[in-house]
Amino acid sequence: MQRLPLVIFAALMAVIPLIPGIPPFWIVLLDNIGLASLVAMGLVLLTGVGGLTSFGQAAFCGFGAYTTAVLTTAYGVSPWLTLPASLLVSGIAAVLLGIVTVRLSGHYLPLGTIAWGIGLFYLFSKLEFLGRNDGISGIPPLSIGSFRMLSPDTIYYAIWIGVLLAAILTMNLLDSRTGRAIRALRRGHIAAEAFGVQTPRAKLLVFIYAAVLAGLSGWFYAHLQRAANPTPFGAQAGIEYLFIAVVGGAGYVWGAVLGAGVVIVLKEVLQSYLPYIFGGQSQLETIVFGILLVLLLQLAPSGVWPWLMARLSIKPASKKPDTSLKLETRERAAATSETLLHIEKARKQFGGVTAVNDVSFDVNAREIVALIGPNGAGKSTTFNLITGVLTATSGKIFVRGKEVENAPPQEVVKLGVSRTFQHVKLVPDMTVLENVAIGAHLRGSSGAVTSMFRFDRAEEAKLLAEAARQIARVGLTDQIDQLAGSLSLGQQRIVEIARALCVDPMLLLLDEPAAGLRHMEKQRLAALLRQLRDGGMSVLLVEHDMGFVMDLADRIVVLDFGTKIAEGTPASIKTNPDVIKAYLGAAA
Prior knowledge:
Blueprint: H1 3-15, H2 24-49, H3 57-74, H4 79-101, H5 108-126, E1 136-137, E2 143-144, E3 147-148, H6 152-174, H7 177-184, H8 189-194, H9 199-225, E4 227-228, H10 235-248, H11 253-277, H12 285-299, H13 304-311, E5 339-350, E6 353-364, E7 368-372, H14 379-386, E8 394-399, E9 402-403, H15 409-414, E10 417-419, H16 432-438, H17 448-452, H18 457-473, H19 489-501, E11 507-511, H20 519-534, E12 538-542, H21 546-552, E13 555-560, E14 563-568, H22 570-574, H23 577-584
Parallel strand pairs: 7-12, 7-13, 10-11, 11-12
Antiparallel strand pairs: 1-4, 2-3, 5-6, 5-8, 8-9, 13-14
Helix pairs in contact: 2-6, 2-9, 2-10, 2-11, 3-4, 3-5, 3-9, 4-9, 6-9, 7-16, 10-11, 11-12, 16-18, 16-19, 18-19
């Protein structure tokens, strides 16, 4: 969302309370929409962007509400001074719960959030200093000088200023190095870690951020209602907040606001009119509400916000990076005799199956080495051992003379080793430029707070410029603003190569890079790899297209059932009887 629409939205929200004759209840409804929007924004980041499903966000609202309630009523602290305390308590609670929760995966993660959400609800209702089930009343209103925000229309502006600031900070965070790392989590941790993203830290960061926004909502709620009790902070409220994020469009900041409006207004309409329709004999609003939400998600499965943007043909503005900006580059190997990669008797066993059987070979500077063999020969497993995705059962791996010794992927990539994957691992709803920029993650240093306040713009411009240069290098400039998921498989593989090049690697590992490419595209890829080699980079590639390999590789290593059966030049491999028997089938 650009600056002009944001200004228009802010002006519209500012004018609404000033409309003559507007019902006071509408203001109450808008206050509640604002409060729900704050929680849903956190879920946009946590669930829609980071891929971590949480049903327990209402509990963090409780931390924010009860913190200000206790401090203002028991200790006479000014409500404004309790704001940082409420956010801090919510954040600390998120750290303690997140350290355990974000390590869960699959269905255990949402089950875990339900468990502690229910537990915290009962904790709020049993603690004496929180008023047990009765809660705490007599919370003082927010005030500025002599102006006291005693009614919904007076606190309205404070709530919506909070919503707008949270939206701006959240969008700034997403549009940054840290934001791209968070967005990469939804496609799994392997690709993100291969480019230096510390996934546990990124997950915990987004968990804390979502909790702090929920704590802010709870703080506003306590001073709007002038009371705090456990009821609004239970599991049902947590489920409703997740509904709001999904209905609005999980992954879209303004979808949180739209989703809150749709769900809260729909609930209010049903609660107001269904009793008249059915004679007040039964409470059917929950059933009808559920049915309408299902129908709405059938119409807009990705959420109302992206559905609306598609109908209005509104697309995000394209980015035009300044490619004159440069990042620091690695010093290249001067001599071809330098060994970049040395593998010594590497072995990987999965139970009783030996996937890699005491394999040894080298990759020297300014060299293209191909790793070939039939399906199941252990080629991709060897790649995973080199890059730290898998730990070796035995053997040693050295990069530029330094023993890797089962180092994690984040440490391996720091040594100048980058890779692509056998099965493409791009984030489909990010643009080509954003996907490629993930490769430059370690070449930047700006953190979350710096990004939220836009202090990272100079570094961000350099990272995007580097991504744009690598995209141009692989010949995909025309697709730079397209979503990666809209490209063909062959183009996606080329995008992965551009992302790997953003690391500025010494050694580039390519897993079946020519798969899905047409003949001319393969020729351009081969020319690019030769250019990289001549520029000082080494390439280790797995490929099944023997014509492509034989024309390109300086040396070839052949695996069969995890064992190296041959190594040599393309000419010698073509005529090797063991290779012909195991893989080629006839002299190539």
